Amino acid sequence: QTLIAHCQLPEVFGYTPSDFPLARLQQATLDKIIGQHRVDDLYPLSPMQEGMLFHTLYEPEAGLYFDQLLFTIEGIFNVTAWQQAWQQVTERHAVLRTACVWDGLKKPLQLVFTKVQVPWIKQDWRGLNKSQQQEQLTAFLHTEKVQGADLTVAPLMRCALIQLKDNQYYFIWTYHHLLLDGWAEPIILTDLI
After folding, report:
1. SS3 call for 96
2. For residues 23 and 44, is the Cβ–Cβ distance under 8 A?
3. Which of 48, 42, 40, 51 is nearest to 21 (CA)?
4. Minimal CA–CA distance to 33: which of 21, 23, 22?
5. In angstroms, rounded to a whole number, what is the distance separating the alpha carbons of residues 122 and 156?
6. How many Cα atoms are found within 13 Å in the side-chain-facing hemisphere of 15?
7. Sheet of 120-124: strands edge to edge?
8. Secondary element (H or E) of residue 192
9. 43: closest CA among 65, 66, 29, 25?
10. pLDDT at position 36
11. Is 34 helix (H, G, I), strand (E, B) or coil?
12. What is the Cα–Cα distance from 35 to 15, expressed in whole angstroms?
């Protein structure tokens, strides 16, 4: 009973290779990858994901495989609820809490963290006219795409909310294609709504 009570303490945890059989790692390598992080899973990338990872690492400034979803939100809008909804969707879908690890490994792996914070960019463009806002948007989208992301840090996505008028916003979701394909995006958005 003492041993069980000790193992249930929040600060006491550890992982062994048997916790992640698909990763096929030795204990020392597992400890190096995970460190003190809390994780839900560790498993190989699919062959398609490996190809995307290779191309992203080979030409990081090209913005390859960084997808963007942009839409306009009009009307009375609860920004706090919107951000909370994105956080809840991220907590529900493991893939949105995923990063990649490859350094010193035979094959790259996906590391699914237990908890991540969705990064937000907020800007206020209400002082700009419509033409200036469009110019800013074009530049912002380009910068977000070529900026990319550190693929070893989850989440591999960013959300941006840009206020255009008192009741009008641009919402931009930038994410790496390693996370989602065209079939998965509507599932995420349905859960979000």
Report:
1. helix
2. yes
3. 42
4. 23
5. 18
6. 22
7. 66-74, 168-176, 157-165, 120-124
8. helix 184-192
9. 25
10. 82
11. helix
12. 10
Q: Give the pair of three-digit tokens for residue 51.
A: 């190809």
CA dist., res. 174 & res. 110, Å (int): 19
Residue that has been written with the tokens 């945890």 in this structure: 13
Average pLDDT, rounded, for the chain: 93
| Per-residue tokens: 88 | 């809840």
Indicate left, alpha or beta for 7 from its phi (over 0: left) and psi (-120 to 50: alpha).
alpha
Coil vs helix vs strand at 72 = strand
Q: What are residue 39's DSSP bridge partners?
A: 113
Does 11 score more than 80 pLDDT?
no
Question: 111-159: per-residue pLDDT in tens?
Answer: 999 999 999 999 999 999 999 999 999 999 999 988 888 999 999 999 9
In sequence order, what are the beta bridge partners of 101?
Answer: 109
Return the structure tokens found at 186. 């509507």
Please enumerate in sequence order all residues whose Cβ is within 8 A of that of 184, keeping only pairs 6 or more positions apart, or say none. Answer: 95
